[in-house]
Amino acid sequence: MIERKLLEIIQEQCFKGKVILLLGARQVGKTTMLKKLVESVHVETMWLNADEADVLNEFTVANTSTRLLQLVGANTKLAVIDEAQQIPDIGNKLKLLYDTKPELQIIATGSSAFDLLNQTGEPLTGRKRTYQLYPISYEEVVADTNFLEARRTLETRLIFGSYPEVVTNPGNEKEALLEIADSYLYKDILKLDGIRKAGQLKKLLQALAFQVGSEVNFHELSKTIGNIDSMTVEKYLDLLEKTYVIYKLPALSRNMRNELKKGKKYYFYDTGIRNVLISNFANMDMRFDKGALWENYLISERIKANQYALSFPNTYFWRTHDQAEIDYIEEMDGVLHAFEFKWRDAKVRFPRSFQNAYPQQTTQLVNMDNFMEFVGTEKKG
């Protein structure tokens, strides 16, 4: 097992009087990581998987604290409830357990923030800590191997992505990735409320995959897909965000009249999933989209690095109507940190209009030579 950075964070939060919610797409390694956690804490543990029909049925009918305590076990010190979003009224049930047995450490996992966070938001106010696990990060690969090995496999990660099953099956990455895409992208997401047609979902995801790095327009997407209106496109995109398939980057707009005010871009949390959708597994030197793919990879890795460092900047892209543009911006403590992504280039010119409009800013080119610092990794080994 590749050591996950989030494991240490969650270990430190256990038995501190909070319910822990662990979110993330299916197959990113939530269960594997928590089994490692269980091995390390050495307490009586009850593991309940809501994917199993009998567990789901027991939780569904358990409406009192007495019945819930019987379900988790009288001597249990740690209760793990896997895929908890499937349990009706799970928020209030977790609250009952928490209030009745505060010494019990509860960890609930979910592959849909739409379901789990909605159900637990109000009942667990002040009672929870929420964390998100992502596909394996570049930083985790470096820690598991060394700097040179991580660099050698960088193109493989760009093309096939970083799901644990993909990373741990060298030589069979494509087969592992196709299985994940088939079992998760369509079958699971189609269970969500509001998504009814697999064909429309696939066309929407393919359109997004081809538009990575470009501004997205709901009306244009609806015309591309056909037989779907702009409001439905927006709803689908919201659900895809909440099931950890895509990530939205809004436009920064404050000072300049000709800035885009409502623009948005979408990136995939995993570049392998993006490449599955367009059926392109070509090497980087042969790709027409290497710039967009590199941009997507860096942003997804930056998200992981920030989250695991417990850093939560506001994030944007920036563009004006006369086509001046910056790929990615983070705002921390009133300062804007602007980044341009280039696969090989050594120089880039940041728009003077941006620098004049936002004097509290820094600028940086991120390319193959210096990306390690950007994704939270120092050169070593």
Can you offer a commentary on this structure?
By secondary structure, the protein is an alpha/beta fold. The protein has two domains: 5-132, 3-Layer(aba) Sandwich (Rossmann fold); 138-374, no CATH class. The chain contains 18 helices and eleven strands. Strands 2-3-4-1-5 form a five-stranded parallel sheet, with helices on both faces. Strands 8-9-10-11 form a four-stranded mixed sheet. A two-stranded antiparallel ribbon has the order 6-7. Helix 5 (90-100) packs across helix 6 (113-120), helix 9 crosses helix 15 and helix 12 packs across helix 13. The longest helix has 19 residues, at 290-308. It is globular and about 65 Å long. It starts with a helix and ends in a 7-residue tail after the last helix. The mean pLDDT is 90.
Count up the helices.
18
Unreliable residue stretches: none
Order of helices and strands: HEHEHHEHEHEHHHHHHHHEEHHEEEHEH
- Which strand order do you get reading across the main beta sheet? 2-3-4-1-5
Structural class, from secondary structure content?
alpha/beta
Overall, the morphology is: globular
Mean pLDDT over the full residue set: 90
Number of domains: 2
Task: Give the termini distance in whole angstroms.
Answer: 20 Å
Task: Report on the biggest sheet.
Answer: 5 strands, parallel
